[in-house]
Design a protein that fits this description.
The complex is a heterodimer of chains A (111) and B (203). Chain A has 7 helices and no strands. By secondary structure, chain A is an all-alpha fold. Chain A has one domain. Chain B is 50% helix and 0% strand. Chain B is globular. With 203 residues, chain B is mainly α. Chain B has a domain of 114 residues. The chains are: A mainly alpha (111), B mainly alpha (203). At the A-B interface, α1, α3, α4 and α5 of A face α3, α5, α6 and α7 of B.
């Protein structure tokens, strides 16, 4: 989804940033959003309030609301996928082999 | 209700309405569980407390707090003890609670008290003719948009929440989707990708 939408906006992105936010993603404000998610999950030393402020300063107050809502939505969707055991489609696994390798996702294949 | 106390920014009306709708859904009797039982599941999820022999409580609590910790055996034993429909209802409740609570936490807002349960019997509205498709529970296809279809009213509540939180299932097909103010599709997907990775969810 990220790759397709970045293409649509003509962003030149580096998907390795999803696994390693020290890499420049190439989406406007993208690394600030990555830092925000990491702060919310305890994956970084940045405080949640500082991360919220950074999103507002760079992208605006509506962006913080959108970011929090999408974070909540994927808290939901990820849990529905885990609980019900949605498998990765074989075709998608073949099609996305390079992405799976780039992000080191093999370890997450459970179903 | 849903004042989002502590948020540094004002909240969109459609987002607030979506959270209120989830809370009203929680308060009603479900398909297998009555409203008191649903509230108990929600409390166990949020408080990470359940009896050792309570398979639904263990599932709700693990799913809410550590989704990657949900195992095939955990789901299978909960189904054996309580039935597939009760498990799907539990997954729906814990997952939608996570949507509301994690949005609040991300905004720095205080969590909303759980809703008071309403009286009434479970509806018993359970879809028939579905089957497992390398999945843990029965569903019509392996699409995330249909994962709760065994219980149509749970899937409808989940689908309704997706629009204001992220985008509707129909909007997901457009790479150019963006709100009038806020983030564009690529920025939304940045959050989706990193969140899913940190949740250790392949999806």
């Amino acid at each position: 989804m990220l790759r397709e939408s970045a293409l649509a906006y003509d962003y030149n992105i580096d998907l390795r940033a999803i696994a390693d936010p020290s890499i420049h993603l190439g989406v406007p404000g993208g690394n600030t959003l990555l830092q925000f998610i990491d702060a919310m999950t305890g994956a970084s030393s940045v405080s949640p309030s500082d991360a919220r402020r950074a999103v507002v300063d760079e992208l605006g107050p509506e962006a913080l609301v959108d970011a929090a809502a999408v974070f909540g939505n994927f808290a939901m969707m990820n849990r529905i996928a885990e609980g019900t055991g949605i498998p990765l489609a074989k075709q998608a696994e073949i099609r996305e082999q390079d992405l799976i390798a780039t992000l080191g996702l093999d370890r997450l294949k459970k179903h | 209700m849903f004042a989002f106390d502590g948020s540094p920014v004002p909240i969109r009306d459609d987002l607030r309405d979506a959270h209120v709708a989830i809370w009203r859904h929680f308060a009603r009797p479900g398909q297998v569980l009555d409203a008191n039982e649903r509230r108990t599941i929600l409390k166990m999820a949020r408080n990470n407390s359940y009896a050792d022999d309570d398979g639904l409580g263990r599932l709700a609590s693990t799913l809410y707090g550590n989704p990657a910790g949900v195992s095939e055996d955990m789901v299978r034993s909960a189904i054996a003890a309580s039935g597939e429909a009760a498990v799907v209802e539990t997954v729906a409740l814990a997952s939608m609670l996570a949507a509301v609570d994690y949005t609040h936490r991300a905004l720095g807002a205080s969590l909303e008290p759980l809703p008071e349960p309403l009286h009434g019997e479970p509806s018993g509205n359970i879809a028939t003719g579905l089957k497992k498709r390398r999945t843990r529970v029965s569903m019509p296809t392996t699409s995330i948009t249909r994962a709760l279809d065994l219980l149509p009213s749970e899937n409808a509540a989940y689908a309704a929440a997706c629009g204001p939180l992220y985008m509707t299932f129909a909007e997901m097909s457009s790479p150019f989707f963006e709100r009038s103010s806020g983030l564009n599709r690529a920025q939304l997907e940045t959050i989706a990708a990193r969140t899913s990775l940190l949740n250790e969810c392949f999806y």
